[in-house]
From TrEMBL:
Protein name from the UniProt record: NADH-quinone oxidoreductase subunit B
SUPFAM superfamilies found in the cross-reference section: HydA/Nqo6-like (SSF56770)
Top EC class, one word: translocase
EC number: 7.1.1.-
Residue stretches making up the NADH:ubiquinone oxidoreductase-like 20kDa subunit domain: 37-146
Membrane-crossing segments per the record: none
Protein's gene: nuoB
Subunit structure: NDH-1 is composed of 14 different subunits. Subunits NuoB, C, D, E, F, and G constitute the peripheral sector of the complex.
Swiss-Prot/TrEMBL GO biological process terms: aerobic respiration; electron transport coupled proton transport
Origin superkingdom: Bacteria
Length: 224
């Protein structure tokens, strides 16, 4: 018999590591670091259509001392690299970096002496997001994957060692699967089967008959 069976409903049970990680991932404030075209997509997630506020992240911080997540959106030039590093150094721990777009991730098509060939030459990167530019949905997906990674972070060196020895790895499950209701696929299949049965029995006239197979262009031409 476990402790949870002795406690009344409403008592929250969790280990400290999970609780700390949950508070961290649920209140990440991004540092504004838009450098090129990708920044427009990054700004879009702040609007009502994509609504990054759902994740407690609506406050894009203009001061690095109040930010945890640096979204590097756009190409980083050699001239900008020391500025980027300085801003990163001013962010308090724990902090995370998301390289948004191919330019930030690897220099992209700007294979020249002026552009840093990947922001990981300047700061450690936690999440790479491909695309040119990545759509706002892709940025949200990368943020959700980063949340999953944060939830799995050990809170001290001993826990880190234990995790390393146990061989645990963060599963990178697509957000569409991770956040879908558990039995979504089965429910949809059952609904379709029930609708087909009702159609066959004619018990629900609102469903109508099944659409006939679409005509091929040759049949249309012949007036058949
Ligand atoms: S990845 Fe594409 S959209 Fe993003 S900064 Fe580079 S060129 Fe612009």
């Amino acid at each position: 018999m476990g402790l949870e069976e002795q406690l009344p409903n409403g008592i929250l049970l969790a280990n400290v590591e999970k609780l700390v990680n949950w508070t961290r991932k649920a209140s990440m404030w991004p540092a504004t670091f838009g450098l090129a075209c990708c920044a427009i997509e990054m700004m879009t997630v702040g609007g009502s259509r994509y609504d990054i506020a759902r994740f407690g992240m609506e406050r894009f911080s203009a001061t690095p001392r109040q930010a945890d997540l640096m979204i590097v959106a756009g190409r980083v030039t050699n001239k900008m690299a020391p500025v980027l590093r300085q801003i990163y150094d001013q962010m308090p721990e724990p902090r995370w970096v998301l390289a948004m777009g191919v330019c930030a991730s690897s220099g992209g098509m700007f294979n020249n002496y002026a552009v840093v060939q990947g922001v990981d030459h300047v700061v450690p990167v936690d999440m790479y997001l491909p695309g040119c530019p990545p759509r706002p949905e892709m940025l949200l997906d990368a943020i959700l994957k980063l949340h999953a990674k944060i939830m799995d972070e050990p809170i001290n060196a001993k826990r880190a060692q234990l995790k390393l020895e146990s061989g645990e790895r963060t599963p990178m499950i697509p957000s569409s699967e991770r956040y879908a209701p558990k039995n979504w696929a089965q429910r949809r299949r059952a609904e379709r089967q029930q609708a087909a049965q009702r159609r066959e029995l004619g018990s629900d006239p609102s469903l109508g008959a099944l659409d006939p197979a679409p005509k091929r262009p040759r049949e249309l031409k012949a007036g058949r």
